Amino acid sequence: MEHRRLGRSGLYVSEITYGNWLTHGELVARDTALACVRAALDAGITTFDTADVYAMGAAEEVLGEALRTVRRSSVEIATKVCLPTGDGPNDRGLSRKHVMESCHASLRRLGTDYVDLYQAHRFDERTPLEETLIAFDDLVRQGKVLYLGVSEWTAPQIEAALTVATDLGLRSRIVANQPQYNMLWRVIEPEVLPLCEREGIGQVVFQPLAQGVLTGKYRPDGPPPANSRATSGGRAPRFIGRVLGPVLLDRVRRLRPLADEAGLSMAQLAIAWTLRSAAVSSAIIGASRPEQVTENATASGVPLPAALLAEIDEVLGDLVDRDPAKTARMMSVKPEWSSPA
To answer: Could you give all domains of the chain from N- to C-terminal order, each with its CATH number?
Structure first.
């Protein structure tokens, strides 16, 4: 497992981050979740990502349990705040009240005194940036948070936060961004990536496998396989349904010979593709079985030749989405290529 700096900060993260969205506390049994974390540690993964909203806190609890016997300084734990964790008007957003209360609740569930990376899960239009950034800065000063990040913010929103932090004379600044990014969804490339590279903000990208679509397990001419996210319970089918469609699945099938030629599985190829960019500090993987973690972690340190990258672009062609306007709306936008042929 190789490690990269998180932007221009002094923090190093593993090229592969283990995340537990839609898995721990929701789709995966506790014993299996613990086994997946052990597999991640065995593979050399040191960075773990979760959020207060994942399984309404249960995901943080399971991760905390899984890491309880691990030397705290040997791992990097990231979590998030913003999305609704209750029915009250203050149980969401980036107000000082919610940020402070959510951070303390996350620390209790994770069983730790601090998190390495605390991220604003979405942008909050209702709360002044000054209020949010001062609350974040206070948490850093208190030693409860070491580094700050955001997730799915647009370039103007990130730039505004950097400006406000400078104007307020805050010591802490945003060093990480967590966007969706994969072969098909490249909406951060036109605006977010250039800004972040200029400002020293590293990308910790999620969905490098596009909800499993880029593994090739979904066929254009057949039903989804049993025990896949598309056939599981909970919220997973709603998310995976946004990226299924015969046109897309046929193109993905045409990527398999390229993966075979490179000596990689489809999943390894997709993860290595996200890591081809120096702007990406880490790619987040999830898993429902330990062997998935072991296989996908080997994508770390795999270089992809320029000719292979060009072939991937040729196969996917006009199905690649690069519209920067979709960055902030990624949770609600249904890509054009997910529609039936």
So the answer is: 3-338 (3.20.20.100)
